[in-house]
Write a structure and sequence with these properties.
Length: 327
């Protein structure tokens, strides 16, 4: 292919899919347009990074608009947030919306083998698609940042990065913090680095009440600007990624980009990423409290060892997309 397809960028400010789509478009040298402009173009290849509310208030609205685009333009897609049974009651609504987009596309990509298995199981694809992992893009490590001791009589700050929403794992991390708190005289604090997802403001009160009951501190930072992210990621004692049913995770990669080695709830995707980038994650089974205690006792273990690689990065991801479009 002489030129990459035109990219439709999601109109979702602050969303990880928007960030990823814009980074990929820039890295491959693609033009970017909104939906109206794409529909007005003469037929030519287009690529879309798909998530539920990309182009509408519901997944069904987004699906209908992308199906219309696929009739007008030869469209390829990257599917994000792939439906899975762990979504709960919305799973039954999400599947037909995603399946319709997939049927309208000339080809599809996901960010993990775990997601590809979900597509095969639930969305009836007509081909095997392709896997292009989310890139890790190294962040600057602030001067003086690094392992710090966590004496039992001092504070212990546990960090969770990303949107606050049901299933992200904040409640489980609070309970694990309480398990650690029983063996420490100093305070244990969960620092949620991110803001509450739309429609879930009630979670702040619920998490605050749970934290108070458990005698655990709770801090919610709100939106963390890109310029402030390196300092935020390096100013916690133990980084954690405990969200449920994860199939691709930008927040997990952000910890790694800051040279942190997060505790990650074990699962198919977590194991896949641990194999892709050895030495970057610490997998945790059911006892998160014990893992937190071990991490507090071994601060160096929450940072990447010298020489641990972060590839694939954005250059490798861009090359993978170019090769795929050229097939």
């Amino acid at each position: 292919m002489s030129a990459p397809p035109v990219h439709l960028l999601p109109d979702l400010p602050g969303h990880g899919v928007t960030l990823h789509a814009s980074q990929v478009a820039a890295a491959v040298g693609a033009d970017t347009l909104d939906l109206t402009a794409l529909l007005d173009l003469a037929p030519q290849p287009v690529h879309v990074h798909v998530t539920d509310r990309l182009l509408g208030a519901t997944g069904e609205e987004t699906s209908a608009r992308l199906v219309a685009l696929g009739r007008r333009q030869p469209m390829t897609v990257t599917l994000h947030d792939v439906p899975q049974p762990g979504d709960g009651p919305v799973f039954a609504r999400r599947v037909p919306a995603y399946a319709a987009v997939l049927a309208a596309a000339r080809g599809w990509v996901v960010s993990s083998e775990h997601e590809r298995a979900l597509v095969r199981r639930h969305l009836a694809p007509t081909d095997d698609g392709a896997v292009v992992p989310l890139p890790v893009m190294p962040l600057p490590v602030p001067d003086g940042a690094g392992p710090r001791t966590c004496p039992a009589d001092g504070p212990l700050v546990v960090g969770v990065l990303g949107w606050v929403y049901p299933g992200k794992g904040h409640d489980e991390v609070l309970r694990a913090c309480a398990g650690v708190r029983r063996d420490r005289s100093g305070p244990v604090v969960l620092r949620a680095l991110g803001r509450v997802a739309a429609g879930h403001d009630h979670l702040l009160d619920e998490l605050a009440a749970l934290a108070a009951d458990l005698d655990v501190g709770l801090e919610v930072s709100g939106w963390v600007a890109d310029a402030d992210l390196p300092a935020a990621l390096t100013d916690v004692d133990v980084p954690v990624a405990a969200h449920h049913h994860v199939s691709a995770s930008g927040s997990m990669n952000s910890w790694v980009a800051a040279r942190r080695r997060p505790l990650v709830t074990d699962g198919t995707y977590a194991r896949e990423m641990a194999a892709l980038r050895p030495g970057t994650l610490t997998l945790v089974d059911d006892d998160l409290a014990a893992a937190l205690a071990r991490a507090a006792a071994d601060p160096a273990g929450t940072w990447l060892a010298p020489g641990v690689g972060l590839a694939p990065g954005l250059d490798e991801v861009a090359a993978a997309y170019r090769a795929w479009w050229s097939r």
